[in-house]
Specification:
The complex is a heterodimer. By secondary structure, chain A is α+β, with helices and mostly antiparallel strands. Helices cover about 35% and strands about 15% of the residues of chain A. In chain A, a hairpin with a 2-residue loop joins strand 7 (about 280-285) and strand 8. In chain A, helix 1 (about 5-15) packs across helix 2, helix 1 packs parallel to helix 3 (about 35-50) and helix 7 crosses helix 8 (about 135-180). Chain A is extended. By secondary structure, chain B is mostly helical. Helices cover about 70% and strands about 0% of the residues of chain B. Chain B is built from nine helices and no strands. Chain B starts with 8 loop residues before the first helix and ends with a helix. Classes of the chains: A alpha+beta, B mainly alpha. At the A-B interface, helix 1, helix 3, helix 4, helix 8 and strand 3 of A face helix 2, helix 3, helix 4, helix 5 and helix 6 of B.
Chain lengths: ~375, ~180
């Protein structure tokens, strides 16, 4: 028997592959007689008894905290009414969705005849915005017809997109292998700067709080869902990638886009809708802090402490955090036990709904905003 | 290597019914394996921790879609492998490169398990990614060659070759013929 035959036989036997008994006996005999093959077999035995690396203590605990939190949130979601669910995905008024960005000039004023403007108007659930009279039943029928045509068009585009995606999946799977063998360079990712906020955006300190947990993470920061936005894709630029499930069941990598002059990021969901996400800020002692998080790939997961910060084991923040000195705070602010507020601050779970961290069952970490 | 995956069909069935305690048992029984794979992939404990978290969240969310004809260990391997690849492709994390020329056998007695483990893990990082992946599937997660080949999308013969090559390289990098 050749050395290669003997060694491959032993290797396969080690993996539980059924080997002909006579053949295996020959392979073992060869290894006893051949110094090189014998050394190989002894080497395999040494490797086999090497202990696996030990994960950090508490890792499984952290996993279960996240899983149980998600299970609880799932239960809360299932208890929501359909109206509550749809209200969070649709702009409350057309003015909110259109007024803040230059693309609103592209599809014109609220009174334009474009189908998108009309469908947003319909989605505003009957709110009579100034300048729009909808008292005539014929006008109502006309609006409804336009909305139906628009939705039908979206459906055709979505079906075409799905067909295109499925035909490309085989090519993609082989590309994955080659990419793993020699990964290509990735786009340089940068977070939108908070100082680039347009004057039309909501100031950080006045940021409305909500208990919604529709977040994505990007470059270590959490971004909360604002809602779908109708805008020209050409006005957005790619700034990186993030992994999130959004409206699908499994997370996948998605391109993160930004609009010049805005701190928001934009992602496209599986229905080709552009969704806007905004960073979350809070003020403390005259300084603005931005909500940070470890990667959250599941849409509906609350932001969590970045992985480099150990979760406290006690309600008072110990041993990771101590209460920071400050006045006039409705919510207790903490700092790292071995640090200062200059490196960041933490907020305990259970803050009121009015707080930017309101509703989050996890400790949250806030980094000084640039 | 110690630490074969816990493949408890009963635990899995209970977890799919919503039993979080059963799911926790799966987590505690298999986290070390998932962590080892991620650590070998990224070479960074922090990245490995985050990956472990993400893997189990994905597993939890996909319980309803798990095909019971497959083994849990096979599924867990696929989720772990894909999570690592997705993170790398998304640019969120990149594996820390290792130059095989920098690999030296740990000083002292390889009978010392700590030294042995450190040496083996360092050498693992220097394996070709596809070989390390194959070795992980078979030796770490306990997949058969058929399951591993199917998971990765290569012929069985290719999978066998990769596992064998991984072992040969490890023995060579660790200088075990001389020391063993």
């Amino acid at each position: 028997m050749e050395c290669l035959e003997a060694q491959t036989t032993i290797s396969e036997a080690l993996d539980g592959t059924p080997i002909d008994a006579t053949w295996l006996t020959s392979a073992k005999q060869h290894c006893r007689e051949c110094s090189e093959c014998g050394a190989f077999v002894r080497g395999l035995a040494v490797i086999k008894r090497a202990p696996l690396p030990q994960p950090p203590a508490g890792l499984a605990d952290s996993v279960m905290i996240a899983v149980r939190a998600e299970a609880a949130e799932n239960a809360r979601r299932e208890a929501r009414t359909p109206e509550e669910v749809s209200a969070r995905m649709i702009p409350a008024t057309e003015s909110e969705s259109l007024s803040e960005h230059s693309p609103d000039a592209t599809f014109g004023s609220p009174d334009s005849s474009g189908p998108l403007a009309h469908s947003l108007d319909t989605a505003a659930m009957g709110t009579d915005a100034p300048g729009r009279a909808r008292t005539s039943p014929f006008a109502t029928i006309a609006w409804a017809s336009a909305a139906a045509v628009f939705l039908l068009g979206i459906g055709v585009v979505a079906i075409g997109g799905i067909r295109q995606m499925s035909s490309g999946s085989l090519a993609k799977s082989s590309a994955i292998e080659s990419e793993y063998a020699g990964s290509s360079t990735q786009d340089t990712a940068r977070a939108p700067s908070a100082t680039d906020d347009s004057t039309q955006e909501v100031a950080p300190s006045a940021q409305p709080a909500s208990s919604s947990n529709d977040f994505v993470s990007f470059n270590g920061f959490a971004y909360r869902l604002v809602g779908p936005e109708a805008m020209q894709r050409s006005s957005l630029s790619d700034i990186g990638m993030t992994t999130t499930s959004l409206d699908s069941t499994t997370p996948r990598a998605r391109t993160v886009k930004a609009l010049q002059g805005s701190s928001r990021i934009y992602l496209e969901d599986d229905r080709f809708q552009i969704l806007a996400f905004e960073p979350v800020f809070r003020e403390f002692e005259g300084r603005s802090y931005q909500l940070s998080t470890r990667d959250i790939s599941g849409f509906g997961t609350w932001p969590m402490l970045p992985s480099q910060i150990a979760a406290p084991s006690q309600e008072n923040g110990a041993p990771s955090f101590v209460e920071a000195q400050g006045t006039g705070q409705e919510v207790k602010i903490y700092r790292l036990a071995a640090g200062t507020v200059g490196s960041g601050i933490a907020v305990a779970p259970g803050s009121p709904a009015s707080d930017p961290a309101g509703g989050n069952p996890n400790w949250t970490w806030w980094t000084p905003a640039k | 290597m110690p630490g074969k995956p816990i493949d408890d069909a009963e635990l899995l069935a209970a977890a799919r019914e919503g039993d979080l305690d059963a799911f926790e048992a799966l987590v505690r029984g298999n986290t070390r394996i998932v962590y080892a794979h991620a650590l070998r992939f990224f070479g960074d404990p922090t990245a490995a921790e985050d990956t472990v978290q993400e893997v189990w969240i994905k597993v939890y969310r996909s319980l309803a879609t798990f095909d019971e004809r497959a083994r849990f260990s096979t599924w867990l391997y696929r989720v772990t492998r894909n999570t690592c690849l997705d993170q790398m492709r998304a640019g969120a994390r990149r594996p820390v490169p290792v130059d095989p020329l920098d690999i030296t056998a740990a000083p002292g007695d390889l009978a010392d398990e700590v030294a042995l483990s450190a040496s083996v893990e360092h050498a693992m990082r220097a394996l070709a990614p596809e070989d390390r992946d194959a070795f992980s599937a078979v030796a770490l997660f306990g997949l058969t060659y058929t399951e591993a080949a199917d998971s990765v999308g290569v012929p069985i013969g290719t999978m066998k070759s990769r596992v064998f090559r991984a072992r040969r390289t490890l023995v060579h990098l660790l200088d075990l013929p001389r020391r063993g």
